[in-house]
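hey so i finally got around to running the thing on that chain from the lab meeting. sorry it took forever, my laptop kept dying and i had to restart like 3 times. anyway pasting the input first so we r on the same page abt which one it is
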Amino acid sequence: MAGNQRWQAIPTQLDVLQFEEFVLPHLSVGRRGPAPKLSLHTIFNYVLRLLYLGCQWKELPIEKDGEGRPEIHYTRIYRIWRRWVVDGCIDAIFTGSVLKLHQDNRLDISVVHGDGTTTAAKKGGDNIGFNGHKKVKGDKVVAFCDRHCNQLIAGYYRNWHQPQATLPKTEIRCEK
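ok and heres what got predicted. didnt touch it at all, straight out
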């Protein structure tokens, strides 16, 4: 019975072939400074592990090198991650994955599920917009999925109660 069910696990690690096909074409590479000791594949897998675990950056479990020291410091992984976010690489990876699902005829948009939640700001909430609906300061997180739980659109919005709030710039048209 369990063999018939289609499970979609959260990927916590990509092999080199998957990385080179789906991720590497969208990543930006630093132009200055020393080259990273680790491959972009390894760094991206550390980011996936962090997102899956939901831990703080300093708590990220990092492998040890031959001398017993961590093979990379968590701040270097964080800086590379921030550069990818600022450069739009993560959005491009997401858009590319949805486009690949569409090209492989794996999207079923006959039913689209949407869900949203508000994340409250505990510290530094003065910089974040006030959500008039929930009476808290924080962000509104929204996700839309197709019938098979393939994520189509995800985004977070500040000042959700203001009329100029729109869906993210990511737009993929799936016409049948």
